[in-house]
């Protein structure tokens, strides 16, 4: 049928659902005849503004000649990238500017959307970059290149996609034949096998000649782009498995068992022989790993590299439980208990950035009787930890990693031994040994990797990104594939870039579509009068903000005045981000993907463009701003709210204060300005609010917070100290909590099915048990009946004259807590959403929309609840809201891990610099937190820095995990909460930075390390920046789990 110049075709599919029901799907498509090839000067096509490809034609009257040198260089060839190359070599596409002027078929982008959602969005952004000259070709809707699915009966998905690519490539080749000087169109795939498949589908030697692999591409372009040769060794490894298969490996030592096939794993899991789980490696002991399995109360432990069988941290694996004789009694993990970080970052990254294709979805089959029996046995086991081994990889982590390669002289004795075993087992010719290097990942939970490069010396002393590939059973290392160089090892920009990459933080510039959503007037934008007329005008009120020193993204401001009846009016005014970020817009979609601003010590990566975060939304002093406000009337006697109102407002802040300036104003008896008196009233009310919350059972927790003073270039920490809290910190904290609770109650009353809230589950018995046991040994009883009884127990765990012990107890209690998470109320009963740490029934995030997407959603819910706007269809879809909450939780975890890694990096640099300056030892006082198999975990009193005193060349540490004590150097017995004198030794071993703590002696009560061993940073000063200061959430809420 012809409609509007297009042919309509229908395709019918029968799909089996998880329930077993078979449904019939009919897809209707319209095939057009006028889709252009994308070449801007093609005389045969009707061109549009998306036609951006360049190619050099033979002289033609209708062809406009282009003289630009860069364009002329790009006219040499047009590449068509296939689905395999785009999926497996996306990082190469993104970072290799030599690959431009190429066609991205519609089939490929659809496939990428199903296989890797992050790469899908990245490719869409690349299409917008004009300099890359990428043409999106609708081959599925073009009559000349459309292929009917009926042609693929009985064929697999890979054959179907290759056939569509072959048809599209052949059309381009024939379409431009005779117009160009020579054959200029190339089909680019990623392996020799795929190339051979295409050659079998194509007809004509001239057409077949231009099917190329990544290696061919590098050779063709290396003369003009010599940097491509860095990729050559890694490009060759795409086919390394087939090369090794041709070798006689009969004399090679088998280091690992064969993996089961996918079908064998699936059948075994269904029959109950195996389990499917998430593999996680210990952070302190690579020989120790565990697997999280649905339906089991405890993790399965996997001990030894042989039992781990080449699984990588974050892989989804097939696990076989070992015989009961191999189960372990009294097993103590090497890692210190930290429930907040129990979910490994790899799990968050993997889940956030990968989506299963339709062909990978599993059927929901009930477990067999044998499996149920085994699970019951495991779940009822009380005396032993169940051990297991990996028998196959169901789904490997689809991620790239940062790190550095070792020169052969820098290899440790252990690494050299493994390297020699690799060369011998893998039959590497002696002439090629110098081409191989050992790559050391930044992530300590990953093994070393073997890489090959034609010029490995050019990669030494560099940080670069690599993808881990095949790991053969004869090799002590997996193979790695080079992606891109980050920069010189040791440079702050390079190290920070690696941290952000490691935790999957999106650092790409905002796309042009996002930028177009911003006000065209830019920084000169002014609030229109018609917008002011719609709002409550509070520009004459004495409003101010109180934030960390140097804060630029100011979310909130407050005011407090006395009303004629003697009561107080308190207002919390939050930046009205949703005025600029409209639901469903490109900027909204981008914010929904990023979810949060990420703070490193020396910089931040914004969720929204800087025009909003630092200017139009930031509540700067003396500037009119749009806000969303919660305003209370508070009784002057009881200091309880008697009325609450929610309004869109416009304010003009009197001052943007920092915590310490605000505190000095409050403490100055001679300061009676309106601004200062308002701050005093706020502090008075906040003090009562805090005491009232504590009486209700809110937990007072703590976390170590170190701040750094940076040099003028913000590249090196020159000083460090523990962050000092003042009263204005909890003043702001209390009013942010009050606003969040009030908004939570409002949106739940209107939208009980899809309100976005934040819950903090009660601690799990396993995580809290070790902490309770430690307190019991110190003579303190702990009740876990409720948050109130737990809070009272913590209050009793107090030692007069030992303030660091008292603080350390709060820190360790925080580590035993679960992480608070976002959720959609539709998934829970109201009784299940109690916030354990705050001891409140309902809680949400409303107060930081500049840096948290959850707050943006809550602003929209509140605006709809007070009849300002209506909700979009997406906001009323509880399934979409639940998925968005999952995304926000994952991104928030990644942001936290990135911030922690940045703090660790700067802590190392600080101590390294101090060591050089002092030309001597750094001696400090520390307290023992926990003793595990790995050694003694301690915290330095003056900095809040943690570390491990382990058995090493510097000291002999013998651990008794049953009694939780350690014998050091055969002489001194150490127990938890002992105070130690230690030496701090920053070292870099094979590019992995470590702060080693060396035991000197125990310190008896009353003894102290001499003052001045390491100078403390003074409060304030130029160049000062703190991770804690930058992260307003941690400063405005002592309770980390909020």
TrEMBL record:
Family annotation (Gene3D superfamilies): 2.40.50.690, 2.40.50.700, 5'-nuclease (3.40.50.1010), Nucleic acid-binding proteins (2.40.50.140)
GO molecular function, one term: endonuclease activity
Domain (S1 motif) ranges: 920-1000
The protein's name: S1 motif domain-containing protein
Protein keywords: Exonuclease, Hydrolase, Nuclease, Nucleus, RNA-binding, rRNA processing
Subcellular localization(s) per the UniProt record: Nucleus
Region described as Disordered: spans on this chain: 342-368, 1016-1042
Family (UniProt): Belongs to the RNR ribonuclease family.
Predominant location category: nucleus
N-terminal signal peptide: none
Ranges annotated as biased composition (Basic residues): 1033-1042
InterPro entries: Dis3_CSD2 (IPR041505), NA-bd_OB-fold (IPR012340), RNase_II/R (IPR001900), RNase_II/R_CS (IPR022966), RNR_Ribonuclease (IPR050180), Rrp44_CSD1 (IPR033771), S1_domain (IPR003029)
Gene Ontology biological process terms, A to Z: nuclear mRNA surveillance of mRNA 3'-end processing; rRNA catabolic process; rRNA processing
Top-rank taxon: Eukaryota
A GO cellular component entry from the record: cytoplasmic exosome (RNase complex)
């Amino acid at each position: 049928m012809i409609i509007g110049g297009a042919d309509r075709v229908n395709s019918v599919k029968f799909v089996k659902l998880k329930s077993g029901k078979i449904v019939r799907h009919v897809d209707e498509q319209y095939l057009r005849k006028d889709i252009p090839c994308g070449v801007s000067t093609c005389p045969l096509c009707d061109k549009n503004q998306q036609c951006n490809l360049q190619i050099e034609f033979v002289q033609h009257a209708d062809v406009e000649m282009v003289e630009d040198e860069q364009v002329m260089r790009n006219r040499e060839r047009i590449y068509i990238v296939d689905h395999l190359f785009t999926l497996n070599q996306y990082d190469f596409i993104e970072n290799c500017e030599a690959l431009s002027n190429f066609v991205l078929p519609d089939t490929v982008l659809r496939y990428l959307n199903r296989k890797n959602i992050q790469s899908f969005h990245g490719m869409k952004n690349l299409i917008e970059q004009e300099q890359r000259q990428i043409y999106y070709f609708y081959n599925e809707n073009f009559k000349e290149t459309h292929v009917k699915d009926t042609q693929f009966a009985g064929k697999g998905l890979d054959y179907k996609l290759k056939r569509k690519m072959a048809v599209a490539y052949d059309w381009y080749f024939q379409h431009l034949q005779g117009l160009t000087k020579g054959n200029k169109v190339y089909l680019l795939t990623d392996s020799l096998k795929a190339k051979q498949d295409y050659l079998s589908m194509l007809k004509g030697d001239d057409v077949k000649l231009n099917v190329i692999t990544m290696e061919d591409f590098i050779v063709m372009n290396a003369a003009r782009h010599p940097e491509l040769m860095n990729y050559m060794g890694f490009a060759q490894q795409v086919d390394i498995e087939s090369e090794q298969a041709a070798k006689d490996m009969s004399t090679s030592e088998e280091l690992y068992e064969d993996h089961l096939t996918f079908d064998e794993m699936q059948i075994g899991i269904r029959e109950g022989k195996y389990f499917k789980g998430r593999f996680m490696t210990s952070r302190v002991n690579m020989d120790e790993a565990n697997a999280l399995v649905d339906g089991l109360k405890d993790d399965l432990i996997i001990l030894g590299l042989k039992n781990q069988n080449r699984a990588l941290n974050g892989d989804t694996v097939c696990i076989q439980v070992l015989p009961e004789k191999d189960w372990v009694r009294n097993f103590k993990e090497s890692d210190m208990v930290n429930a907040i970080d129990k979910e490994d970052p790899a799990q968050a990254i993997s889940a956030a950035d990968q989506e299963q294709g339709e062909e990978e979805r599993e059927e929901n089959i009930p477990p067999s009787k044998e499996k149920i029996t085994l699970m019951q046995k495991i779940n009822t086991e009380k005396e032993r930890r169940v051990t297991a081994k990996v028998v196959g990889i169901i789904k490997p982590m689809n991620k790239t990693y940062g790190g550095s390669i070792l020169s052969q002289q820098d290899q440790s004795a252990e690494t050299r031994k493994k390297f020699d075993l690799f060369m011998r087992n893998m039959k590497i010719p002696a002439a090629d040994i110098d081409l191989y290097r050992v790559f050391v990942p930044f992530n300590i939970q990953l093994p070393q990797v073997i890489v090959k490069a034609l010029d490995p010396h050019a990669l030494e002393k560099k940080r670069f990104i690599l993808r881990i590939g095949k790991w053969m059973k004869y090799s002590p290392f997996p193979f790695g594939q080079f992606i891109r160089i980050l920069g010189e090892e040791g440079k702050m920009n390079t190290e920070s870039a690696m941290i952000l990459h490691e935790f999957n933080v999106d650092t790409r510039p905002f796309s042009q579509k996002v930028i177009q959503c911003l006000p065209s007037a830019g920084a000169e934008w002014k609030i229109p009068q018609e917008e002011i007329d719609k709002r409550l005008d509070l520009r004459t009120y004495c409003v101010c903000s109180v934030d960390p020193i140097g804060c630029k993204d100011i979310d909130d401001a407050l005011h407090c005045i006395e009303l004629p009846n003697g009561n107080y009016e308190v207002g919390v005014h939050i930046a009205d981000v949703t005025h600029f970020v409209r639901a469903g817009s490109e900027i909204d979609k981008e914010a929904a993907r990023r979810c949060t601003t990420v703070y490193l010590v020396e910089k931040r990566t914004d969720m929204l463009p800087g025009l909003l975060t630092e200017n139009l939304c930031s509540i700067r002093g003396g500037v009119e701003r749009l806000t969303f406000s919660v305003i209370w009337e508070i009784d002057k006697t009881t200091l309880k709210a008697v009325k609450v109102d929610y309004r869109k407002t416009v304010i003009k802040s009197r001052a943007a204060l920092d915590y310490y300036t605000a505190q000095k104003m409050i403490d100055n008896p001679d300061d009676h300005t309106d601004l200062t008196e308002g701050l005093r009233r706020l502090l008075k009310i906040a003090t009562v609010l805090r005491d009232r919350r504590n009486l209700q059972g809110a937990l007072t927790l703590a976390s170590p917070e170190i701040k750094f003073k940076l040099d003028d270039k913000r590249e090196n920490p020159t000083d460090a100290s523990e962050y000092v809290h003042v009263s204005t910190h909890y003043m702001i904290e209390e009013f942010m909590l009050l606003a969040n609770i009030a908004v939570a109650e409002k949106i739940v009353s209107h939208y009980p099915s899809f309100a976005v809230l934040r819950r903090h589950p009660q601690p799990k018995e396993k995580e809290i048990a070790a902490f309770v046991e430690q307190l019991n040994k110190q003579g303190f009883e702990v009740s876990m009946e409720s948050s109130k009884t737990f809070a009272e127990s913590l209050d009793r765990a107090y030692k007069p004259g030992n303030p660091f012990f008292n603080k350390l107890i709060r820190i360790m209690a925080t580590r035993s807590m679960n992480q608070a998470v976002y959720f959609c109320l539709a998934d829970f009963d109201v009784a299940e959403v109690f916030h354990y740490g705050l001891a409140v029934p309902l809680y949400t995030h409303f107060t930081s929309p500049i840096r948290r997407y959850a707050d943006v959603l809550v602003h929209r819910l509140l605006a709809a609840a007070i009849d300002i706007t209506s909700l979009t269809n997406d906001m009323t879809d509880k399934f979409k809201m639940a998925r968005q909450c999952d995304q926000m939780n994952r991104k928030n975890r990644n942001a936290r891990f990135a911030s922690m890694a940045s703090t660790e990096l700067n802590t190392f640099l600080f101590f390294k610099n101090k060591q050089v300056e002092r030309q001597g030892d750094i001696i400090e006082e520390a307290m023992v937190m926990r003793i595990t198999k790995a050694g003694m975990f301690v915290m330095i009193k003056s900095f809040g820095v943690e570390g491990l005193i382990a058995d090493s060349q510097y000291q002999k540490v013998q651990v008794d995990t049953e009694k939780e004590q350690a014998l050091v150097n055969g002489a001194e017995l150490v127990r938890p909460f002992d105070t130690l004198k230690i030496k701090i030794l920053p070292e870099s071993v094979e590019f992995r930075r470590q702060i080693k703590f060396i035991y000197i002696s125990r310190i008896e009560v009353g003894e102290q390390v001499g003052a001045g061993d390491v100078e403390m940073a003074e409060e304030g000063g130029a160049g000062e920046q703190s991770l804690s200061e930058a992260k307003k959430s941690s400063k405005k809420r002592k309770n980390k789990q909020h």
